[in-house]
UniProtKB/TrEMBL annotation:
The keyword Oxidoreductase applies. This is SDR family oxidoreductase. Keywords: Oxidoreductase. It comes from Actinomadura monticuli. Transmembrane segments: none annotated. Belongs to the short-chain dehydrogenases/reductases (SDR) family.
């Protein structure tokens, strides 16, 4: 197994993407610790992993609270002996629309949320990973450098912030054998629910790919597990494009 005897922490582990990564990690032998704010969703993901023979635990953690984040990661290390993979999938506050119409206060709050949660969760994992001399920090939702689409408000800018943090963390943690990566998709139709009004949007996502097949949640989990494994030991400071050609680097 790719992640046997590894420990993974996932913020937003009760969501569709977080759950997919948790299942992917657990299927490859990792012990997964899921954090979030909705017990029912976390418990559902953990139960599915346990039913499949995997190891999963849950905790209510505010990923914007430094004491909560650091205390939880410290407890994970005390329990499992290490933290080998850290993933932050906390949802961002999307503000769609022309930037000229966006409230400065709303924009500032949304950017602060992204910056704060990524900084806190990465710091908490990095403290232990530097001591270990190993680890992988994985971000999701890499930016499209060729963006030419108006009306995205803070969305593209937020993704660009994630990429900037990924680059800075990678160069600072690299000498300690800690890798930092991000994943970029053209959208995951399965994560958008079953509402009929979303069918056209899902089809557009598939049509935008070269293969006419958008990435699935299973794809996300499998690729994330590979990136977190030693099979990807030479990969860091880059975003991994799983958009099936919808985005061209």
């Amino acid at each position: 197994m790719l992640l046997e005897n590894k420990t993974a922490v996932i913020y937003g582990g009760g969501g569709s993407i977080g759950g997919a990564m948790a299942r992917g990690f657990a299927a490859e032998g990792a012990r997964v610790f899921l954090a979030g704010r909705t017990p029912a969703k976390l418990d559902a993901v953990a139960a599915g992993i346990r039913d499949a023979g995997g190891l999963a635990e849950t905790a209510l953690v505010d990923a914007l609270d430094a004491d909560a984040v650091n205390g939880w990661v410290d407890s994970v290390v005390e329990t499992a002996g290490s933290v080998d993979v850290s993933v932050n999938l906390i949802s961002h506050d999307a503000l769609f629309g022309p930037l000229i119409e966006v409230s400065a206060d709303d924009f500032a709050r949304s950017m602060e949320k992204i910056a704060r949660t990524l900084l806190l969760t990465t710091q908490a994992a990095a403290r232990h990973m530097v001591k270990q001399g190993s680890g992988v920090i994985l971000y999701f939702g890499g930016s499209d450098s060729g963006n030419r689409m108006p009306g995205l408000g803070n969305v593209q800018i937020g993704c660009d912030m994630v990429e900037a943090m990924r680059r800075q963390w990678a160069c600072e943690l690299g000498p300690h054998s800690v890798r930092v990566l991000s994943m970029k998709t053209g959208g995951i139709p399965e994560s958008m629910g079953d509402a009929p009004e979303m069918d056209a949007v899902k089809q557009q996502m598939a049509d935008a790919t070269l293969t006419k097949r958008a990435a699935t949640l299973t794809d996300v989990g499998r690729i994330a597990a590979f990136l977190a494994s030693d099979h990807a030991a030479s990969m860091t400071s880059t975003q991994v494009n799983i958009s099936a050609g919808a985005h061209v680097d």
